[in-house]
Amino acid sequence: MQLVVQSEPNSAKHHNNLGYVLLRKNDIARAVWYFKKAVELDPGMYQPYCNLVVCLSQLPAIDPADAQWVDRALELAPANNYRLYIHAAAVYRRLRNAEPAKQDVWEAKIRNCLDTARLLGCPEAIIRGHTNGLKRIPALGSLENTYPNAAPPSDSALDQVRSLEFGDYYIPPS
User: Fold this and answer.
1) How far apart are CA 15 and CA 2, in angstroms?
2) Which residues form the domain of 97?
3) pLDDT digits over 138-160, tens only?
């Protein structure tokens, strides 16, 4: 794959694909670099943004400036895959912990992602795992449960995010 990128250094698709291979090998830092390069080469291509969200959801620490990648992925990607919203909620959760002054902003974004994931068919157990530590989030539909602001971010919820399949963001070579 590295040779393909070298043969076409201006191909966003090839940079995205190499980043995806590195992501699957758990080489997150290098994958992030290739996804950002793909975005630089083609800012309208949604797949590298989505792959960046997956990477960010697996990093132990996130720079608040990285929120731009999540926001752009949610803006560009087709709204038909709950996995993107679950990964985005995980990133926003970490940002909420990194920037307590903006806690309400991050919690609103988390809430929106979880509500969208629920509407797209995300299993309720995964959604519940992400509500730990949030203020009060009403569930959608007939569910009337709320979740108190008591628990710290759940490691099990983060493990569930890591175990999700990566989704359909890889673009096979043509």
Assistant:
1) 9
2) 78-163
3) 433 322 232 223 233 344 444 44
